[in-house]
Amino acid sequence: MKIILLTLLLSVAAIGNAAAQETPSSPGAKVYFVNLSDGDTVTAPFKVIFGLSGMGVAPSGIEKKGTGHHHLLIDRPPLGKGEDGEDELELSLPTDENHLHFGNGQTETTLKLDAGTHTLQLVLGDHAHVPHSPPVVSKVITITVK
Ligand SMILES: [Cu+2]
Prior knowledge:
Elements: H1 2-21, E1 30-33, E2 41-42, E3 46-53, E4 56-57, E5 67-74, E6 99-101, E7 108-111, E8 116-125, E9 141-145
Parallel strand pairs: 2-9, 4-5
Antiparallel strand pairs: 1-3, 3-7, 5-6, 5-8, 8-9
The structure holds copper (II) ion (CU).
């Protein structure tokens, strides 16, 4: 009897998790850098404009079909398997200097990065900062700050 109850509880937990992680993206949705390309050289501070097609922008916390908010990943590997082997595409994005959230629905920012090369990637996240399924992510671009 105990075993059955435990199994039942585990199943409920698994379903709950799956539901929390799966916000569908719209087919063909794309996120991209409007004003920067791979290999560009810029002078700090510089503007980064976020492009989104096929979906809309909504502030964080607002659960609305076909929407999300922008995240800018700076100087880190492409979003995928994390250091601990966890699938980052199923987790809420962290908030730190390598992971900027634009939870008010902003579509651009100004960056002051040190001189040198830097990588940037855009990731659309749902109301809970989790990438959509399938994920809407840009290519990683490398830029040089003079
Ligand atoms: Cu976020």
